[in-house]
Amino acid sequence: MTQELHIVGGGMAGSEAAWQAANMGVRVVIHEMRPKVETFAHKTGNLGEMVCSNSFRSDDSEQNAVGLLHWEMRRAGGIIITTAHEHRLPAGGALAVDRDPFAETITRKLTSHPNISVSYEEVTELPTEGQWIIATGPLTSSKLGSAIQAETGSDALAFFDAIAPIVYTESINMDVAWLQSRYDKGETEAEQKAYLNCPMTKPQYEAFIDALLAADKTEFHEGETAGYFDGCLPIEVMAERGRETLRHGPMKPVGLTNANDPENKPYAVVQLRRDNALGTLYNIVGFQTKMKYGAQTEVFKMIPGLEDASFARLGGIHRNTFINSPTLLDNRLRMKSRPNVRFAGQITGVEGYVESASMGLVAGRMAAAEMLGLDLPDVPQDTAHGALIHHITGGAEAKTFQPMNVNFGLFRPLEGLRGGRRGRKDRYKGYTDRAKSDWQGWLEAQSLPISEA
Predict the structure, then answer these.
(1) Does 13 carry a binding-site annotation?
(2) Does 22 belong to an annotated binding site?
(3) How far apart are CA 368 and CA 218, in angstroms?
(4) Structural domains of the chain in order of their starting residue, each with its CATH number
(5) What's the rounded Cα separation, in Å, for the pair 286 and 251?
(6) 294 has binding-site annotation
(7) Is 10 labelled as part of a ligand binding site?
(8) Which residues make Cβ contacts (< 8 Å) with residue 138, sequence separation at least 6?
(9) Residues 297 and 121 sit within 8 Å (Cβ to Cβ)
(10) Residue 54: helix, strand or coil by DSSP?
(11) Tens digit of pLDDT for each residue in 67-87?
């Protein structure tokens, strides 16, 4: 066939969409504006570059919705999740990766695929001809964003996604900090000691909150609105909601015992997660921030164990654009007003690396099937992929539509299972068993290779 599928954006969603379509026999062109056109958050021109956390979150496919999404992506031969496992770092029950080798491997796999080529030019308009997938993610360029806004006839929706700082391991005081995953989670010793913990007494915590609230913050440009996604709130915004908010959030002390002072329970704990395979970098978990750089170094050095910390990267904040998918997209992720254009990834209103890649996976398969004249069944709603698609294309209330992580609240109830917290374990297992069966059936109906989970 001579027709090509054009994918705008080489992040998680675009990379996954390209991989899926190319493996179905479709020729793919990835349009990636980096490195010619830079963004605030990206550091390289690699495809699949991670710009925020290095975690794909839980890998538990029986009791966690994102872990189920991992499982489904592995079964479909997803490039993102399989490469993440190739570059896995110890992180308790989570799937954390060595970010630079991860992106380098993604780039190598895609650029060496016989059906994939890459064009390093910026796309500034919505195309009128051909088959396209827009997977530009949270940092959609202003020109393309304006073109999308002109087509939809509505104001762009946006929130601000904040980046947590990264600390050089050698600068952390291990006479104060200790290694332990919360509740000692993990099957190996490395998993059980995947996090560095910095304890705080009550006076230290109170002084930290005071400094956090008083610190200089980034100012927003005129006309911008700071509508944060609740799953990625800057720590100072959380602190503004109440002095104890952080202590019941990212700084909660439960499930941890101070190895340096086991007799005294910390009032609060700051956790750092390993950020690379060498173990030379740790990121401060949940500490995304919009403080100015000078203020960040002063405030974060108040954390016990980080008094002499050296930062490989300070926190930052960027605007994240997403469309009102419930009004604009059909259940095949096609634009209703322009069916030759699909959207995938974070711009559709899903949140997180895994969710973004998963929307790329289904968009790539859907586009390729349409181009090949194949009758691809709808993604079953009771799978993790299907639950997300249903939410963003009609399950959510359009008037209040906001970015969403995958969660079991998006799944249809199962009859005969106990509700509430006490029935949660059996209920979640029921959801994941049903989803795996339905996802397996969807893959088999396509007569395409299925990977071993």
Answers:
(1) yes
(2) no
(3) 43
(4) 4-158+321-444 (3.50.50.60), 165-314 (2.40.30)
(5) 8
(6) no
(7) yes
(8) 161, 318, 319, 320, 321, 322, 346, 347
(9) no
(10) coil
(11) 999 999 999 999 999 999 999
